[in-house]
Every structure is written in C-alpha cells, then in structure tokens.
Sequence to fold (451 residues):
Amino acid sequence: MISPRQSATKRPPSDVSAAVGLTGVAGLSLWIAVCHFWPQIADALALPGPRARLVGPYAALLGLVFAAVPMVIWSLAVDKVHRRGSTGIDWSLDRPMGETLDISVTKLAGLWATWALIAALYCLCRWYWQSSYLIAMQVLGTLAPPLFVLSIAYVLWLDRKLVQPRDACWHFGALLIGRDSYSIDQVWIHLRAWAVKGFFTAFMISIVPGGFANLVAPDWGRMLANPAGLAGLLITVMFVLDEQIGTVGYILTMKPLDAQIRSANPYLAGWLSALLCYPPFQIMGQDRPIFYLAGTDGDNNWIRVLGDYGAVMWVWAGLLVFLTAIYAWATVAFGIRFSNLTYRGVLTNGPYAFTRHPAYVSKNLFWWCATLPFFVTTHSATDMIRNTFFLGCVSAIYFWRAKTEERHLLAEDPKYREYWQWMQQHGLITAPLHRLAAALAKRQLAGREAA
Fold:
C-alpha cells in the first residue's frame, strides 16, 4: 500500500491510447448511420430488397465488427501493442513446433475443458434460454465449432513465440491430465479470468440487439424538437456506444493485442459487489429487494417533474446527456480492453485523468438526476423515503465495487499505485475529496486527543 507521504508529480502514461476507442466509435457510427438511412441508401443506389431500417439482431451484432476492426488496426499498426513486453511474446523466437508441442497439447486440454465447463453452465442455468439471452446462446453456439478448430492453430503458433508458454491455461490443463508441475494458484487465476469472460460476454451480447434497435428504429427528426426527445436520442447513442465497445472488449482478450486478462479480482467482496448489479443476481429493479422507483416514471421521471418548465428542461436534458457521455467515454477509453473484475493494464487518460471511477460517478449521478426518486405521484412520504434510501443503497454498492477494484489493482501493478497516488494529489474530483477526508480525519484525531 502507498504511504500518504509519498508524492507523485506526474501522471503515469496510459496503457491504452485515446485514439483506439475513438476509431471504434467512428466505425460503429458509420454502421449505425448506414442502418438508419438504409431506405434512402437503397433508393439512391437502386438496390433490390425491402426499404426498411436495419434494426435486426444481426445488424446489431455486425456493429461489433465495425467497432472492433478499426480498433484492432490502430492498436497494431499505430500503437504497435503486439511489440510490448507485457504481451509475453518475443517475436524473434522461432522455436520448432516439436519443442512446444507437448506444452500446446496440455494448454489445449485446459482451454477446451474450460469451454466445456462454461457450456455446461450455460446449459444448466435456465435464464440463458429465456428472453434476450437467447441471441447470445445462438451466437456462441454458432461460433463454437470454428473457434474449436482455430484454437488449435492459434495455440500451436503462439506457444512458439511466448517467452513463458506455460501460462495459467497450461497449469489448468496440467491439473486435468495429472501432471505434478502445475500451480494451484495459476489454476485459480485461469478459472477466475474465464468466469468473468463466460458470464459477462453472454450478458453483453444479449443486450446489444435491444439497444441497437432502440437507436436505429425511431425517426430521429421527430426527436430533435424538444429537450426530452433530443436527450432520449443522445442518451441512447451513448448507451449503444458503451454496449458495443464494451462487448468488443470482452471478446478480444488476446495476447497479441496486449489485451489479455492478466488477472481477475481475487476477492470475494469484489465478485459479490459486481454480481449484485447484473442479472440473474441483480438486486435492483422491479420486484427486487432494492427498488427505488415506486410512484415515479422511472428514468423519465425528470420529464414529468420538470415538464412545465421549458428552460429548466433544456438545462436538465443537457446535464443528463453530459453524464451519459462521461459514462460512455469511460468505456470507450478502454478501447479493446474493457472488462469488469479484471486487470488488463492501467488506464490513466480520458475521464480517468479526473477521477479513478468516472463510470460509477457519472452513472450514479445520472440515476439521481433522471429518476428524482423523491418526487412521487403517490404523494406518499413512505415512497419518498424508501426511494431515496434504496437509491442511496445502490450508490453505496457502487462505492463498494470501486474500493474492491482498487484493492485488486493496487496489489497488481506499481503503475496503478503511482496513478492512485497522483489522483489523490491532482485529480480534479478525487483530490478535493481526499483533502476533505484527510481534514475530517485530522479533526477527529484532534478531538480524541483533546478528550
């Protein structure tokens, strides 16, 4: 842990350049425009087929490709991430295949067993075969056979270039085939990483089609005339960017891209605080233990409350769009490395130059400002108190998540410790809060000494 007396005078460089995520946004925005204006494009080019906006699930999933390809090209061609030592790859190595074949076979055993375990959980857990999760199961089921075949060539090729090919996946394979040289710590690192990937990849794929359709299908022109419509359109844009770029991050966990999961959060509190925010474990929402929208219009409650105040509506709409933009920016800044509960390098630029947790801060402020939980149609003081209390509980859970993530990253990387200390001293949001906490602690200590 860092001593409070240590000083960090310079913000450490980010492991991800700002341009990576922006290229993904550009590619995805192009595809969104094509899908929305497809009737006009088809007419202009005299193309055969129906004249309807492309709002189906496959159009949405193709957006992942339009987001991913520019980010991969920029990462390799400009940032040259494949040359970094953190990949664990030495491209000058050219081991004969026979030298690493035994290692690769062991690793493939571990990899395929991991996939089989994830597939078994998908099969057993009923929620994966209901509602929006069905598209995720279809996609993953379709991709499974080609990925199985491609994994052979990939592992055989990569092991010849890895400085240390006996990675966490190899240790899991060694455990399965009965080798004595495996490390149980490495096995747990492997299982935690794939637990994150298996759980969140299915979830992210499942939400991509719905958000994409909500953006592409409406008539944008009709939404620009009033603050509620314009805010709704822009907020939907931001959420789609977040969902698509985030999903790409879960998929592209590859060493040649320096985007591998180096470790997943080893602390139970970290997993608990995160899983409480996602189905099927989610405790917020209708018929859930924490429900803060009784007697409101949900995220549109601000429209009901402020609808008669035109100028205030425009200001409030701008505030909500700004908060959502910060939230989306926090995901876009990761480029191809976004993921919950994992360490995949240190991000210090973009919104992370102002606070260590811009997504959590902006998301919770958005919820408070959009739902205004204390303005209820029931005129019930009980509903007002409950809503305010339970939304406070939600914010507390995200604060808990932030602290468990910091604990994980502080233990993993000296660069993150340096970044953490820099933020304590210079962060636009973090530094004042740190000084306030230090002043309160000092005052409390002085009071104890005086007593």
Q: What stands out?
A: Residues 184-216 form the longest helix (33 residues). The beta strands are 263-264, 342-343.
